[in-house]
Design brief:
Strands 1, 2, 3, 4, 5, 6, 7, 8, 9 and 10 form a 10-stranded mixed β-sheet that branches. About 2% of the residues have low confidence. This protein folds into 2 domains: 234 residues, no CATH class; 35 residues, no CATH class. It contains 7 helices and 10 strands. It binds iron/sulfur cluster (SF4). Iron/sulfur cluster (SF4) binds next to loops.
Length: 277
């Protein structure tokens, strides 16, 4: 049914986008949604994305990579406790090295799934992942409650993935200061759902430097052909004309993506206030 892999976590360098992170990163990839032999849905809120899943992008296209991920998904659904204990062991080991080297290492537990691993690590391994001081965590999720649950947790940044079914929730979470991601086919607009858009492909940890922002992700793989509404094709957006990029030039004499997070936030808030005035 499955074999126990030597390692569950892969180094971020194995993924083109995660390799752009400016801190060392580990990522857990297991086959998403119902791609396991029990048919358990590992992405409970997956909608059109299931067909257009990012799973088909990048290295996921290769069948040996897919088989390894399906194997891990089967391991998870058939022996959750053992899987979680192995994961906890790997995290503790990585944390030991981070602490020894005096650095922070980023961990993305849901590379291609949507599971509350933080909860499961506490439940099955008695490990509070936030007690590992050398690690910070980030994820994308489609579960609004998960974003709210960890909104004030400084060691875990969750980005809500907008799809064709959850725009109202995306708007609400943006107002609470959470980031949302939008998969876009074509040039990204400057504003979407009333919030400023940043390049979510610049690295995999853009979310750590933003709050209340839209992370634009370029449609890749099968997602380019998506017709479910999961992917926003740029000609469908009717967002108001942007001024943020122009203001960045005017105020700081730099482009938007060259601003520090605090400069960016100050400029963005000022722009919102201007719109209300
Ligand atoms: S929730 Fe994410 S990982 Fe799961 S099917 Fe959708 S895009 Fe893929």
């Amino acid at each position: 049914m499955y074999t126990i892999p030597k390692k569950l976590l892969s180094p971020g360098a194995t993924n083109a986008k995660t390799a752009k992170n400016n801190i060392e990163t580990f990522i857990l990839y297991i086959a998403p949604a119902r791609q396991n032999s029990k048919g358990v849905n590992l992405c409970p809120k997956a909608a059109g994305c299931e067909a257009a899943c990012l799973y088909t992008a990048g290295r996921g296209k290769f069948s040996n990579v897919q088989s390894a991920r399906i194997n891990k998904a089967n391991y998870f659904v058939y022996d959750k406790e053992k899987f979680i204990l192995q994961l906890a062991g790997e995290l503790v080991k990585i944390n030991k090295r981070a602490t020894k080297d005096g650095k922070q290492i980023a961990v993305r537990l849901n590379g291609t799934s949507d599971i509350d691993f933080i909860y499961l690590l506490k439940k099955y391994a008695g490990l509070d992942p936030f007690s590992l001081s050398g690690l910070i965590y980030y994820d994308y999720t489609k579960i609004p409650g998960k974003v709210k649950k960890y909104l004030n947790e400084p060691r875990y940044s969750l980005t809500f993935s907008r799809d064709e079914t959850n725009e109202a929730e995306a708007r609400e979470l943006l107002k609470l200061g959470a980031n949302i991601s939008v998969v876009i086919n074509g040039p990204a607009p400057f504003f979407y759902l009333g919030a400023p858009v940043v390049d979510g492909d610049k690295s995999d940890i853009v979310m750590l430097y933003n709050t209340g922002a839209v992370l634009a992700l370029k449609a890749k793989g099968d997602a380019k052909k998506d017709t479910t509404g999961f992917v926003v094709h740029t000609n469908e957006t009717n967002e108001p004309a942007p001024f943020l990029a122009i203001e960045a030039r005017k105020v700081f004499n730099r482009s938007l993506d060259q601003l520090s997070p605090s400069e960016y936030t100050a400029l963005r808030d000022e722009q919102f206030l201007n719109q209300l005035r």
